[in-house]
Amino acid sequence: MHGADPRLVLGLHRSRHHRDILTAALDLGVTALDTAAAYLGFRSHAVLAETAADLLPKFALSTKVGFFPGAGGAEHSLDPSRLRLAIEKTARELGREPDTVLLHNPEQSLAGMSPADGHALLGSACTALVDAARDGLCRTWGVSSWDTRPLGMAGVEDLPSPDVLMVRAGFLVGIDLLDTMAVLRNAWQAGETWGMSPFGGGNGKVWEDFDPRPFLRPPHDGLSRVQAAFRTAFHLPSAAAVAVGTDDPAHLAQLLQALGAEVDTTAVSQYLRALHGLRQS
Question: The pTM is what?
Fold first, then answer.
């Protein structure tokens, strides 16, 4: 088994939840696992407990609540009572308390609301997670957001500060969203930032047309464009960890190898300035 490296998080979005990928992750030293109550048709927690109950204590496990089964599919809610019940159900289904519970895409409920109403609703949801952590249902709490702009419009300065803010990361994130993330993170005084979806949902053709390897400091011989994209995602925005989904142990090993490369932060800064320039032109 390799030494543990918490910077790479194995995400289970779109995963088949097979035991083999969990075993391979542990063998490679990947000891952080991220899922959500809504994954695998709302069966993620139960399937993990059925297939890998003995492995789960070996992971730092994060999950998300906020989506619920509805008549037309999944529905989103920030109702504090529903969130509390969902967190309690999570622990029962997994057979253990998760290390981190995240609000899952709260912008789904905030979109279209007035700033005042959005602020009140988000505040009550955050308080529900603060209480869950206080009561031992998780160790830390946070927010996972695909689009942070509605959160910024609601205002977060006087809301409980999350331990984790999980946001999109990488070259496929636009400069407007990157700027919004930075403002939100500072205003909210969030603890760690985690990145997600560094490949933009699996759009592999992008890396045939764009080579991100110049953003790494030499030597980086042998690293692929995908590896370079993953490594640079830790700086777009600055993140302590990045979650990536795969059912392929070889792909996971390649991404882990990429963590040994050093990012040219000057090149990243120039890239961001260029994006700002394009927006202003």
Answer: 0.95
| Structural domain contains residue 3 | no
Q: Which of 73-77, 136-140, 201-205, 273-277 bottoms out in mean pLDDT, i.e. has the lowest? A: 201-205
> Is residue 234, in this structure, part of any structural domain at all?
yes
Q: Smallest Cα–Cα separation from 183: which of 142, 158, 148?
A: 148
- Counted domains in the chain: 1
- Return the amino acid letter for 108: Q
Residues 6+ apart with CB under 8 A from 161: 188, 189, 190, 191
Considering only residues 63 and 206, tell me which one the structure prediction assigns the higher pLDDT: 63
- Choose among 199, 196, 195: nearest CA to 208: 199
CATH number for the domain spanning 196: value is: 3.20.20.100
Q: Which domain holds residue 160?
A: 8-280
On whether the CB atoms of residues 12 and 39 are closer than 8 A, the answer is yes
Task: Tell me if 1 is assigned to some domain.
Answer: no
CA end-to-end distance (rounded Å), the chain: 51
- The pLDDT tens digits for 117-128 are 999 999 999 999
